[in-house]
Amino acid sequence: MNRRNFVLGTAAVTTAAAGQQRKPASDGGNTPVRETPLRAGYIGSDYYDDKERRELNDVLETKRPFRWYGPGDEPPLKVLTFEREFAARLQTRFALAVTSGSAALSTALAALEIGPGDEVILPAWTWHSCYNAIVLAGALPVFAEIDESFNIDPADLELKITPQTKAVMAVHLQGSPCQLDAVLAIARRHRVKVVEDCAQSMGASYKGRPVGSLGDIGIYSLQINKTITAGEGGALVTNDPILFERASRFHDLGSLRAPHQKAVGSPRIDGFPGSQFRMSEFTGGVLLAQLRKLDEIVAALRANSSRVYQGIRDLPGARLRLLPDPKGELGTAVFLGFETKEKRDRYLVAMKAENVPASPPSGSVILPTVPHVVQKRTIHPAWPSFTTERGRLIRYGAECCPRTIDILSRFAGVSIHPRYTRRETDDIIAAIRKVYPAVTRA
Ligand SMILES: Cc1ncc(COP(=O)(O)O)c(C=O)c1O
Questions:
Q1: Cα of 207 to ligand 1 centre, how many Å?
Q2: Ligand 1 centre from 410 Cα, in Å?
Q3: Mind listing the domains of the chain with CATH numbers?
Q4: SS3 for 209?
Q5: Burial 6-15 (b: 16+ CB within 10 A, else e)
Q6: Pick the catalytic residue: 226, 341, 352, 376?
Q7: Using one digit for the tens of pLDDT, what is the confidence trace for 22-65?
Q8: Is 343 among the catalytic positions?
Q9: By C-alpha distance, which of 246, 201, 192 is closest to 219?
Q10: Which residues share a beta bridge with 125?
Q11: Ligand 1: distance of its center to the CA of 225 in Å?
């Protein structure tokens, strides 16, 4: 289930205790845990109120939709303030607002000077944007397997490092950090840079520090399926003034505007051709209001997911998703593992019959199996990613990620919404307690 399908229910009909006794509805038991399915919902946009409205009105009334200048004596400040508060929240020296998470990834790779001849390692299970950013930089994507956290497996990451490896994408998927200590140690040992992709985990932390603040660069998406949102948007954080300067220049045609120049002290880099990924003041205003609600949203998500974990913790043999830092998890879903895909699929059917739907891990793709990846297609036949010797020899396809495919086929999760009521989390507990033992026993 991805964020599009986040469920937000209303009518509850039974309690957790009652749910434990009965036969699953899919096995002929006649009373499902809920009469109606939990309904779908989003997170950040569900928290829109007068605060976002005031920010938007302000931009309309001052007629200053562009981040760097506009009419009047006052400079526009929405995006700049968002950047300052974002850096403070993420505990980093610098933050850069951009148009999307994909733009943030391309900007991060540009900041790290990644290009033709370089290799970048990414997990076999993540979003298209990760692979695309590497290819669009002219570098070679190299896949590593995932572990049961659904994130990059550090042991396989180390096996994939070559003298050409310049960076690794440590992607924190579906609310949970990857095994970051191990990834950072391996990267340091091999002098490889770490880009933390926190698109799906804004608000999560790792051993007390916000995800994104521990690698060389962290990136975020602020698209509608994410923890906070303006429909579209992205951001990048770093503690390194040179990386920030190069990122700022790349996102704005190669130039460094005065406020960012002031932030880095004196410029250290000459201009170069960049892209145009500037955020508008409308987006900045909405994101500022959303960012100020982030802690409230994260606390509600964690409270609801903790209730569910507590409610199922005594289930015999229950196997959870590997959580490298359970306290730092965002809590957007509660995943359970099964011995086989058949049992997992029976769980999906049975949970649906209880009107508490569960889904396989989602919001990402098994990239090595995507047809244009298998065929190494690019927009030009001489694209540098695949013209080096390594690029010509590399083979993608299901063969390069059998463990990833196996793990994803054996897990299923129930999404958690921060606005769930106690009744709704009780229904989730009741459905899992009713269905999981029946499926795993069979
Ligand atoms: C892991 C990951 N990285 C990057 C992105 C790209 O973000 P955007 O859609 O804002 O370009 C996404 C989007 O869902 C994502 O899930």
A1: 24
A2: 24
A3: 3-43+294-363+404-441 (3.90.1150.10), 50-292 (3.40.640.10)
A4: strand
A5: bbbbeebebe
A6: 226
A7: 678 777 776 899 999 987 689 999 999 999 999 999 999 999 99
A8: no
A9: 201
A10: 366
A11: 9
